[in-house]
Amino acid sequence: MTQKRNIALLLILVFIALCAGCSDDDCPTCPDTGPTGPLADWIGEYDTATKWGGEFGVWQASSDLIVAEGGYIIYGTALILNPTIDGDNVSWTTTDGNAHNVNITFVTSQTSDYYWGDQGGGASGKLFTGTRQSGGDGPLDFRGLVGED
User: Fold this and answer.
1) Rounded CA gap, 130 and 136, in Å?
2) Do 50 and 142 touch, CB atoms closer than 8 A?
3) Residue 67 CA, distance from chain mean position
4) Distance from C-alpha of 95 to C-alpha of 117, rounded to nearest angstrom
5) Does the pLDDT of residue 104 top 60, yes or no?
């Protein structure tokens, strides 16, 4: 009886191992859990821009921002240290060793001539708006939109 139990356990382990990296296309019996963790809905690589000068300022391209599974955030080439995540709002500070103070809110669409005037007055998809501030400078308007692959 022990041998049958061991074989059954072995088969279950093999099934789990096979399904660990599967998708619905190649293993339809696997549960689709999708990305998990904080910011799971916002995973992606964002093209970002900053604007200085308020209403009359011009958006300038900035470093890419990457939201990765598990709530990891990379801005430029730096992993963000100790980000504060509150739902769709994210912030981080220079006090924690980051290069900028940032406060952003993720949304799926936004109509705003201020943030998206150069894009027809609105944007949709995975995007964010907020502020980015370097040490000693005033805050800049900050936006990001998942780029087209």
Assistant:
1) 18
2) yes
3) 3
4) 33
5) yes
Class of domain 40-146: mainly beta
Q: Please check the confidence at residue 6 and state whether its pLDDT lies above 60.
A: no
CA distance to 8, 18, 53, 55, 104, per residue, from 28 (Å): 21, 12, 53, 51, 37
- Amino acid of residue 82: N
Class of residue 40 by CB neighbours under 10 A (exposed 0-12, middle 13-18, buried 19+)? middle
Alpha-carbon distances of 86 from 45, 46, 127, rounded to whole Å:
20, 19, 16
Domain range annotation of the chain: 1-33, 40-146
Rounded to whole angstroms, the Cα distance separating 33 from 139 reads 38
Q: What is the pTM of this model?
A: 0.75
Helix, strand, or coil (residue 118): helix
pLDDT tens digits for range 14-50: 444 444 454 445 544 444 555 677 899 999 999 999 9
Residues 106 and 42: beta-carbon distance below 8 Å = yes
